[in-house]
Structure formats: structure tokens, C-alpha cells
Design goal:
The chain is α+β, with helices and mostly antiparallel strands. It has helices at about 70-95, 125-135, 150-155, 165-170, 180-185, 190-195, 210-220, 260-265, and strands at about 1-10, 15-20, 30-35, 40-50, 65, 100-105, 115-120, 140-145, 225-230, 230-240, 245-250, 255-260. It has a five-stranded antiparallel beta sheet. β6 and β7 (about 115-120) form a beta hairpin. α1 (about 70-95) crosses α2 (about 125-135).
């Protein structure tokens, strides 16, 4: 087991574990930590706890110190400088006629590096751009190409549901989402209905997917025939959320709605026959 604290560097960013050492660190503290890209400023989102070795990347880097007011002022200045760098980079991209879209600019805490995040349809030869930027900012330059989902996470926005994008407010990581999830939930397969601002399938399709998969194993299939107290019939409708089955009775033509428990009590389906 390893003693760690969880730190985020962005509002909805991934949580990274660091060793607190002998420091008394609490949740919501701001800290200065050592990372692979240099010294960084982050917020503690989970206090000191012990985690299994398989859940951490070894060797653990240390929390250098709890952030001071001076450190917070440096972060504010870095953000202001990043905005200026954004404008300069946009101008240089236009000058070099590069087919790329600048999304965000970020300084490391110690200003040892400035990162430019961009999107593009293919590979971009930005060597001359890097030379120009390095001569202007006199520090290490890193241009990082990101995908459309990362772009939406950085820029934010309002989704089709009317709420702020999940990825920009609380999702730390993107999970795989497939069209099968939309099919299992009986959603319209119209791309405009199930796609987010990024143009990819909406992350929220994943939220209830486990419940739908569980329901599919318990409920019968559409058109499956069964005997009920009303006579023999076939399944014509399923309500996954409420575990309801609609059965059309052959003799009367009526459609009767049963709960899963009722069908099991009548012996129409059993625990052994559920998938």
C-alpha cells in the first residue's frame, strides 16, 4: 500500500497521485508538485489515503509544498501570459498558412515550457512555427495535437440536454462509447440526436449502459413466445428501465403488460432461462 493524495491540474482533469511525504495536506488545498513536465500547481481533490500498488504509477513523485498566496499570483500571471501567447500563435499560424486550429495555450508553473494545443485533420509540419515561437518566448515550446473530444473538454459548452458539457465539468477520463449502447437503449440512431458538440457519440450513453445490459439478460427477447395466465402469446414490447414485458395474446389479440416478477411467478420465464 502507498500513502498518496489525489491532485488535479484542471477543473475536470484526470486525478494524479503524489506522495504527501511529511506534509499535512487536506482536501481542497492547493499544492506545488513535481511532474514529468516540470513543477506544477494543482488542487488536492482527495486527501491523504492509502491505495494499492496496482493503482499508482511508480515511482511516486512528491508534493513539494503547500501553495502560498505568491504561488497563486504566479498562476494568475501565467494565465494572462498564456492569453497573450494565444494571440501571437494564431498570428504566426496564419503567417505560415498552416491548416491547424489553435485551441488553448498553457504555461507550466515555473514557465519552463509553454504548451500549444491544436486540432488538425492530418499531420502538420510546424517546425518553422516552433522556431518562430521559441525566438519570441525564449522558452521551451511544445505543440500538442489533440482530438475533437479533448477540444470540447477544453472549450466547454452547452450540450443538447441544456447542461454544461460533462467532459468540461466533471469527467476526468473519456470512456469508450459505441453505437451498440444507443441501440440497446432504443434511442434514435440519427447522428444529430446521439452526438455531442464534438461530433462524437455522447459520453452520457455510457451512464446507464450497465443497467440496460443487466436488463437484457433478465428480460425475454422480442418475438419470443411464452405461456401466460391469459394464454399463449409473444413478446411485442420491453420496458428496460421498469422491467416490464408486453405480450400479445394469440387468441384474443390483446396486449397485456407483465412485470418480470409476474412472468416468473406464472412460470412463463424462470431464473434459469434468463440470459
Amino acid at each position: 500500500m502507498h500513502r498518496v493524495v489525489g491532485v488535479r491540474f484542471k477543473k475536470a482533469g484526470k486525478i494524479y497521485y503524489f506522495s504527501p511525504g511529511e506534509l499535512d495536506i487536506n482536501k481542497d488545498d492547493f499544492v506545488i508538485v513535481e511532474t514529468a513536465r516540470g513543477v506544477e500547481f494543482g488542487k488536492v481533490v482527495s486527501g491523504i489515503k492509502e491505495v494499492d500498488e496496482k493503482d499508482v504509477v511508480l515511482p511516486l513523485k512528491n508534493v513539494l509544498r503547500i501553495a502560498t498566496e505568491k504561488d497563486k499570483l504566479i498562476v494568475k500571471e501565467n494565465r494572462e501570459e498564456a492569453q497573450k501567447a494565444f494571440s501571437v500563435c494564431v498570428e504566426k499560424i496564419s503567417h505560415h498558412e498552416l491548416d491547424m486550429k489553435l485551441v488553448d495555450v498553457e504555461y507550466t508553473f515555473d514557465r519552463n515550457k509553454v504548451l500549444f494545443y491544436f486540432t488538425a485533420d492530418g499531420r502538420i509540419d510546424f517546425r518553422e512555427l516552433v522556431k518562430d515561437l521559441a525566438s519570441i518566448f525564449r522558452t521551451r515550446i511544445e505543440l500538442r495535437q489533440i482530438g475533437v473530444r479533448d477540444e470540447a473538454k477544453m472549450l466547454g459548452g452547452i450540450g443538447p440536454c441544456g447542461r454544461m458539457l460533462c467532459c468540461s465539468t466533471f469527467l476526468g477520463d473519456f470512456e469508450p462509447v459505441s453505437i451498440k449502447m444507443a441501440k440497446d437503449q432504443n434511442l434514435s440512431l440519427n447522428p444529430t440526436k446521439i452526438s455531442g458538440l464534438c461530433g462524437r457519440l455522447m459520453c452520457c450513453l455510457k451512464y446507464e449502459n450497465d443497467m440496460y445490459e443487466s436488463a437484457k439478460k433478465e428480460l425475454p427477447d422480442l418475438n419470443e413466445q411464452m405461456k401466460t395466465s391469459y394464454g399463449k402469446g409473444k413478446v411485442v414490447g420491453l420496458n428496460m428501465l421498469e422491467r416490464l414485458v408486453q405480450v400479445e395474446i394469440f387468441e384474443s389479440g390483446r396486449v397485456i403488460e407483465f412485470t418480470l416478477d409476474e412472468l416468473m411467478e406464472e412460470g412463463a420465464i424462470t431464473a434459469e432461462t434468463t440470459k
